[in-house]
Amino acid sequence: MKRRCFECKEYCGLFGIYGHKDAARLTYLGLYALQHRGQESAGIVVSDEKRVRQCKGMGLVADVFNDENIKSLKGHIAVGHVRYSTTGSSSAKNVQPFLVEYANESLAVGHNGNLVNALELRRKLEKEGAIFQTTMDSEIILHLVAKSRKRQFQDKLIDALSKIKGAYALILITKDQIIGVRDPNGFRPLCLGQVDGSWVLASETCALDLIQARYVREIEPGEIVFINKRGIRSISPLSKAKPSFCIFEYIYFARPDSNIFGHSVYLARKRLGEQLFKECPADADIVIPIPDSGNCAALGFAEASGIPFEMGIIRNHYIGRTFIQPSQHIRDFGVKVKLNPVKELLKGKRVVIIEDSIVRGTTSRARVKAVRDAGAKEVHMRVSCPPLKFPCYYGIDFPTKKELIASSRRVNEIRDYVGLDSLGYLSLKGMLSSIPLPKEKFCTCCFTGEYPIPIKHKVSKYSLERK
Ligand code: AMP
After folding, report:
1. pLDDT at 85
2. Residue positions annotated with a catalytic role
3. Which end of the chain is more exposed for a tag (fewer CB within 10 A), N or C?
4. Best substitution site from 255, 353, 363, 425 to test ligand 1's pocket, by max atoms within 8 Å of Cβ?
C-alpha cells in the first residue's frame, strides 16, 4: 500500500517586522543572524497593504538575496524564514514562508516546530478536496484558516490553531498585519522587540541585536499577538497546556549570544559545564571544546576544574554546502575538512574534550581518533547533557531511536565505541538545575521519553515522500 507522509520542519528560524519602510532589508539581516537555525533555504514575504510579494530560494540567506531582489520586496510588513538542511531533492517547493491567496485575502506563514497530528489533518483535508502544494505540515495551517467557516480573520485563525497539535512558533502576515503565535506548550522560542517604533518578532534575540532592536519580551505559550496600524493586541484563546520549552535550545541549538525563553544561552551553557565538572571530574592536562557548540560548556568546565582551557581543535568556518571532493580517498575527510586538531598542543597531553551532545556517536568517534592521531596521550570526553535516548517529534532533527547510540548502549559501551579512555554525561537533574528556569517548564523528552503531547504517528523527515 502506498503511504503518504510528511516532511517535518526540523530546525527553523523566524523573523518578522511590522511598520518599517525597510522591512525586507531588516528581515534579510534578521535571517542572517538566524542562519544557524537553518541553512537549506531562505524566504521573505512582504506586504505594502496592496500587494504581497515574495522571494525564496534554496541555500544560505546571502545566496538567495541580493540588493536587487531585496529592493523589489516593497512594503512595510515582512516575514522571513530559514530552514534547516534535509536530504532529498523535493525541497524547492517546501521553501517557506508559504504564501496563499484565498477569498480576496493573502496569507503567508513561517513555521518553526513540528505538528504531531499532521497526518490525520492532511488526510481529512484531502478527503474533503484540499489540494496540497507541498509536503510540509505548515501548509495545513493555511488550509485550516482558509476553510474555517468563521467570518473574522482572528476567529478563523483561532479555529485553525485549535485543530493543530504539536510544536509551532508561527509568524503570519496578511495584507495589513503581522501575527505572532506560540503553541500552548511553548516548545519553540519567539520573542518580541522594537526598532524605530516598529514591532519585531524573532526566534532568537541575536536577530534583534543585529538590527539594533530593543528586546521587549517573550511571546508567551498559547499567546497570539496581532500587530497592525492600531498597535499590538494580545490574546490567549487556546486551551492551556503544561509549559514544555525545548531544553535542547540551551544545549546545542540556539546561538550563545541569544537569550532564549528570557535567559542567556551563553551563561546557561557555562553553568552546564561547571555542573559537568562537579558530577564527572577528569584528570587531564587541558580542557578542549568541540567548537563551536562545546565552547561555553568547556569554559565552565575549565573554570570549575582549574584545568587550562585550550582550543585544541580548530573549526573551518567557511565550509559551504558543497565542495569538490578529493580525487583520492582521504581518511575521515568529512571530519578533517571541518575540524583540525592542533598537533603541537595535543602531543603527549591528557585531554578532556567537552562535547555538547552525542547523537549517533559516529562524528564523535572520528573526532576522537583525530585527537589521538595528533598525539594526545589520553582522551576523555564529558558531555554537557544526559544520554540522548529518544527521538524528538517537536522540531529537533534527531534520528530514529535505533540510530541514537544511547538508546541501546550503556555509557561504557559508548565509551568503547567512540574510542575514549573515559566518558561522562551530565545528569538530568544537574542539567535542569543549571538553567535558571523552573525544571517543570522544560520538555526533556529526548532524554526521558516523556512526551508532553502524545505521539500517534511518528512523523519524521525520513518518512516524508510517497513510497
Ligand atoms: P555524533 O558523534 O555523530 O553523535 O555527533 C555529535 C555532534 O552532533 C555534536 O558535536 C553535536 O553538537 C552535534 N549535534 C547535536 N544535535 C544535533 C542535531 N540535532 N543535528 C545535527 N548535529 C547535532
Report:
1. 56
2. 12
3. N
4. 363
pLDDT for res 322: 65
Does the structure show a pLDDT above 80 at 458?
no
CA distance 352 to 422: 9
Report whether pLDDT(381) > 50.
yes
Domain 12-243 CATH (choose: 3.60.20.10, 3.40.50.10540, 1.10.10.350, 2.115.10.20): 3.60.20.10
Q: Which atom of ligand 1 is nearest to the CA of 290?
A: 10
Rounded to the nearest angstrom, the distance between the alpha carbon of 358 and the centre of ligand 1 is 6
- Looking at the CA of residue 248, tell me the nearest atom of ligand 1: 16
* Cβ of 10 less than 6 Å from ligand 1: no
CA 44, chain centre distance (Å): 18
Residue nearest to atom 6 of ligand 1 (CA): 358
**Higher pLDDT pick, 83 / 331:** 83
Give 239-283 pLDDT, tens digit per residue: 999 999 999 999 999 999 999 999 999 999 999 999 999 999 999
Give whole-number Cα distances, 348 to 291, 381, 413, in Å: 21, 17, 26
Q: Is the CB of 248 under 6 A from ligand 1?
A: no
Residue listed under C-alpha cell 515582512: 78
Name the nearest CA neighbour of 304 among 426, 386, 429. Answer: 426
pLDDT at 319: 78
Is-contact 3 467, C-beta < 8 A? yes
81-108 average pLDDT score: 81
The domain ranges of the chain are 12-243, 259-448
Question: Which pLDDT belongs to residue 456?
Answer: 78
Grade residue 86 by pLDDT with cuts at 50, 70 and 90: very low
The partner residues of 115 in beta bridges, in order of sequence, read: 166
Determine what percent of the chain is predicted with pLDDT higher than 90.
84
**How far does CA 411 lie from the centroid of its chain?**
27
Residue with cell 503518504: 4
Q: For position 7, what pLDDT does the model report? A: 43
Helix, coil or strand: residue 39: coil
Q: Which helix (H) or strand (E) holds 215?
A: strand 214-218
Beta strand 105-115 with 166-173: parallel, antiparallel or unpaired? Answer: antiparallel
Confidence of residue 299 (pLDDT cuts 50, 70, 90): very high
Question: Is the distance from the beta carbon of residue 358 to the nearest atom of ligand 1 less than 6 Å?
Answer: yes
C-alpha 396 to ligand 1 mean position (Å): 11
Angle at 184 between CA 183 and CA 189, to 5 degrees: 50
- Relative to beta strand 166-173, strand 178-182 is antiparallel
In words, the CATH class of domain 259-448 is: alpha beta
